[in-house]
């Protein structure tokens, strides 16, 4: 139980029940990934994306889809596979990175959003 107040005198204090998490490994992992992403951003002057692949199974594909496609406007990518625990062949990732950038979408949230070709297994992602 924590007692929370708007000032040090305890005025208008109320109690809050806090339930701790079992461990902080996933939080530390996310902090490590974010620190690496920031470092790549800083050292490349914003030109390179950073994508960490913890494996080439579900976790790695989830990270790839989350981080790679959010950074398609970059000129290149650092794909970090340190501590990769294995999985399947990374052909999906290779094919996705071979896609041709086709257009940019206008958005009120960002000035542009990149759009690539669809992932077609017969053409390895290139729909031309």
Describe this structure in words.
There is one protein chain. With about 130 residues, this protein is of the alpha+beta class. The chain contains three helices and six strands, in the order ββαβαβαββ. The strands form three sheets. It has a two-stranded antiparallel sheet with strand order 1-2. A two-stranded parallel ribbon has the order 3-4. Strand 3 (about 50), helix 2 (about 60-70) and strand 4 form a beta-alpha-beta unit. The protein is extended and about 60 Å long. About 5% of the residues are buried.
Brief account:
This protein is an alpha+beta fold and 128 residues long.
Q: Main attributes?
A:
128 residues, two-stranded parallel sheet, 6 strands
Beta content comes to 15-25%
Structural class: alpha+beta
Question: What is the global morphology?
Answer: extended
Look at the structure and give the mean pLDDT.
82
Radius of gyration of CA atoms, rounded to a whole number:
21 Å
Strand order of the largest sheet: 1-2
**Regions with little confidence, pLDDT below 50 for 5+ residues:** 119-128
Number of helices: 3
Largest sheet: 2 strands, antiparallel
* Beta strand count: 6
Residues in helices, as a percent range: 25-40%
Q: Topology as H/E string? A: EEHEHEHEE
How far apart are the termini? Answer: 61 Å
């Amino acid at each position: 139980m924590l007692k929370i107040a708007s000032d040090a005198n305890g005025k208008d204090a109320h109690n809050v029940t806090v339930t701790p998490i079992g461990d902080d490994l996933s939080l530390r992992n996310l902090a490590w990934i974010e620190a690496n992403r920031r470092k790549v951003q800083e050292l490349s002057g914003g030109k390179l994306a950073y994508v960490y692949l913890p494996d080439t199974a579900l976790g790695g594909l989830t990270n790839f889809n989350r981080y790679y496609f959010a950074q398609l406007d970059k000129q290149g990518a650092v794909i970090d596979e340190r501590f990769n625990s294995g999985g399947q062949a990374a052909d999906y990732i290779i094919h996705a990175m071979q896609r041709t950038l086709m257009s940019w979408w206008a958005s009120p949230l960002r000035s542009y959003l990149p759009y690539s070709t669809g992932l077609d297994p017969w053409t390895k992602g290139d729909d031309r």
